[in-house]
Amino acid sequence: MRKIISTISFLLFAAFCFAQNNNTTIIKAGKLIDVETGKVLTNQLILIRHDSIVQVGSNIAIPKDAKVIDLSKYTVLPGLIDCHTHITGQPGGDYYADIFRKTPVDVAVTAHIYAKKTLEAGFTTVRDLGSAGLVDIALRNAINNGDIVGPNIYAATVFIGSTGSHGDLNGFSAYLQFNMPKGMSGVANGVEGVREQVRYNVKNGADVIKFGASAGVLSEEESVGAPQYTQEEMNAIVSEAKMWGRKTAAHAHGAEAIKMAVKAGVASVEHGSLVDEEGIQLMKEHGTYLVSDVYDDEYILSEYAKLGFPEKIINKEKMVGKLQRENFQKAVEAGVKIAFGTDAGVYPHGWNGKQFKWMTRFGLSPMGAIQAATINAADLIGIKEKTGSIKAGKKADIIAVAANPIDEITSLENVQFVMKNGVVYKNN
Ligand code: ARG
């Protein structure tokens, strides 16, 4: 009897191995969103080998050994891309404890939780724009090694900001100082200083450079929108990044800072809250992407007082949130390029999809919002050859939702199926 059981288990194991090695998959898609043409196709087949898409169409011969995934009752679309996350952490419930009782080691220990939640929400790729202690790089590498589960990460390492900026520690005693290696704070000043900081970030693994062109909301400086670097400093950051083959993203709420960053040649303006007519025209001329976190106002105003954030910060949010959405709509209507980015980590990771509703409420069509989170996002990051649409030759980054998101955009808040690089991570 023992022998029979062990023989059966061996056969099952062998069959399992064979199934794992048989790397051909067919997805039957009831509806498929073609983000390149903006069309919804019906009854499509997607042939996948290993990690890549080989063929897409309604008339594909299904190989005998192919594993079939039946999504014929679902709408299938490319894996979503969030161009602005802080995937390594989120507020823990006490503003001061987060700042003073935690080190990057605490952050590193829990970062994998957020990475998994993000992937399971249908986001197969993120551009992560600022993390303390190089935790983003460790997280990216562990995911790429297959040690932990998460999206593909394009990481910025530390946020580059001037003394007293959104990236600095403000509002506390001048005698307080964190003891960290030079470069790790991201605080840099002057043309030479910012060039050196860009080199530090690249040396430590940055895929993209992020800097603070203007003040911010969730930091204790007085202003939200005032520039925090000179034009010369911004030019230096962008040109140094370019020399190392990196694109640049500028945190910018204020109208003046947005224009300075666009003139410096950034690939994207983050937030863009107070952009004016001239800024919108400049962004169009330069082909600069707007990445605007139009969901966050909702979460900050309902939750941040409870999380212990100072009133000063809540008041800044009240000043900026509504204007940001109105100006987002103006930019959309003027034809500024839009990429999806949510500042995830401001709200709980995994809720990224909630922003679609707000983007469509403020000017974008459902297809436009989906394109912002797929093909446009891939273009901004510089990975259009690899991902961002369901096309032969690209990585098999594929998700599915129960309803057609073109009719029901909030269906993207409940992703039912997730495949990244040909591997299924969720199949409800
Ligand atoms: N990280 C950004 C900042 O602190 C968050 C802004 C959130 N508010 C908003 N309305 N989008 O400046």
Mean pLDDT: 95
Poorly predicted parts: 13-21
Strand order in the largest sheet:
3-2-1-4-12-13-14
Distance between the termini: 37 Å
Quick one: CATH class of the largest domain? Alpha Beta
Work out the count of structural domains.
2
Question: Helical content, roughly?
Answer: 25-40%
Bound molecules: arginine
Based on the model shown, name its key terms.
single chain; 428 residues; alpha/beta; four-stranded parallel beta sheet; binds arginine
Description of the structure:
The strands form three sheets. The chain has a seven-stranded mixed beta sheet with strand order 3-2-1-4-12-13-14, with no helix packed on it. The longest helix is centred in the C-terminal third of the chain and has 24 residues, at 311-334. It has helices spanning 2-21, 95-100, 104-120, 135-144, 190-203, 231-243, 255-264, 277-286, 296-303, 311-334, 355-361, 366-372, 375-381; strands at residues 24-34, 39-49, 52-57, 67-78, 80-85, 123-128, 152-155, 208-212, 247-252, 268-271, 289-291, 398-401, 415-420, 423-427. The chain is 36% helix and 21% strand. By secondary structure, it is of the alpha/beta class. It is globular. Mean pLDDT is 95; it is low at 13-21. It has two domains: 17-79 and 389-427, Urease, subunit C, domain 1, CATH 2.30.40; 80-381, TIM Barrel (Alpha-Beta Barrel). Helix 5 runs parallel beside helix 6 (231-243) and helix 6 (231-243) runs parallel beside helix 7. Bound molecules: arginine.
